[in-house]
Amino acid sequence: MNLATNRNPGAGFTMVELLVAIAIVGLLMAVSVPATLNFYESVQYRQAVRDVITTLGTARQRALDTGQALDVAFDPERMTFGLGDDQQPLPEGFNLGVSTAAEVNRKGIGIIRFYPEGNSSGGDVVLESPTGRGVRISVDWLLGGVSQETFDAP
Q1: Which domain holds residue 38?
Q2: Averaged pLDDT, 81-100
């Protein structure tokens, strides 16, 4: 029995077929990895915006419920914000800007104060992602309402 005659010439893959398959996988990886990183940053951005808005809304509601003024502190240097001792960090690479009433601020920390009547000291918080996408969160001084306006990189 001759082994050469029983061999199926179509069995297995040629070197060219393997190289084409590897090239296709490499191309898919080159496209999907940056898209995954952009998706992850987008999730971080949306969560940070949601956390800031929730914290502001919670402070307003607690001030109404307890009858005491409550402060939400924003520290652009440490990249944190929070209500009282519950300070939350913002994702790395993000920028935080705060514009609030000077009389309630403390040593480089922007404060938005909510009063028991439902109003606030007012102010703006600007949160910008590393790609330049951002949001301006505004707190109305008269009614204490929270609104947001998005912007994109120039």
Answers
A1: 12-151
A2: 94
Residue 20, CB-side half-sphere exposure with 13 Å CA sphere: 5
Q: Is residue 5 part of a domain?
A: no
CATH of the domain at 47: 3.55.40.10
Helix, strand or coil, per DSSP, at residue 33: helix
For residue 133, is it within any domain? yes
CA dihedral (118, 122, 124, 125) in degrees, to 10, reads -60
Measured in whole angstroms, the distance separating CA 41 from the mean position of its chain's CA atoms is: 7
How many structural domains comprise the chain?
1
The residue-averaged pLDDT of 127-139 equals 93
Q: What is the pLDDT of residues 32-43, one digit of tens each?
A: 777 676 778 889
Give the other-Cβ count within 10 Å of 119's Cβ: 18
| SS3 of residue 115 by DSSP | coil
Instruction: Decide which of 75 and 35 is more confident.
Output: 75
